[in-house]
Design brief:
Number of strands: 6
Oligomer: single chain
Distance between the termini: 50 Å
Radius of gyration: 20 Å
Largest sheet: 6 strands, mixed
Helix content: 40-55%
Strand content: 15-25%
Order of helices and strands: HHHHHHHHHHHEEHEEEEHH
Length: 294
Amino acid sequence: MTTMDRAAVFTAHRASMLAAAYRVTGSRADAEDVVQEAWLAWDRVDMAEVREPRSFLAVMASRLALNAVRARRRRREEYVGPWLPEPIVDDGSPEWAVLHDDGLGQALDFVLSTLRPEHAAAYVLRKVLDVDYEAIAEVLGSSPAGARQVVSRAQRAVTDALGDSLPHQVDRDSRAIGALAEAVSTGDVDRVAALLAPGAVLYSDGGGKAHAALRPVEGPEKIARFLLGLATRPEVTMTPARINGSAGVVLTESGRVTTTATLRAGQGGIVGLYFVRNPDKLAVVAGRYAHTTG
């Protein structure tokens, strides 16, 4: 394989590698660093070892992403309040196309961030990228049977947190966001609460740098009051956006991007809401919506 062919193969799978690395690290910058490191490693790979480039590169990216998470574990442990993955807003470019096209959303990304990194990586490789168990075992340093067990445990954790994926989940979430925004605009606590499932939870990530709930907000009434309090802030506007592959909104306050919001709708109402308010995680989004903020 020539240098040009090698580069073309890597480029063809770059978006899948970014998505895999992001879903393990929860960080845009970390995912981009992982892919850059993978490129340097790919340039040294003996191509005789590569049976299937897509699987090989996905495994490489996942292994490097695991190393990145382990290196930053202390930073995550010392984080102020709930930690949510960085929001990535779809701008129509092919770079993050895989992340946005799969429609899995920030709800899944958050659950993956609560798992052991090895379990998150195994889940992404199998359930998102359809990599075989033999290749996943290489990442985990286990047998294929052991890799299968890890994937199964990760799947149970995801299902326990989110329920089963429903048909047309992105459309369902989009309708739920519209209904919630309309209810919030009325200022009626009961009307907002009625849209939420009994066990609904809202996570708000300020990272100690923006006003946010330091603990998850649980239950329809408490969440409703939290949302109504946010809506009373000065000059709040909402712009629909596709965030991490699902429906969401970008909120501006007095012309400044302050929040991205996504949710997960289930059969019995909205089960999870995910608000990112940490300005460090919103820097790219703020630039993308500069035309909105003035």
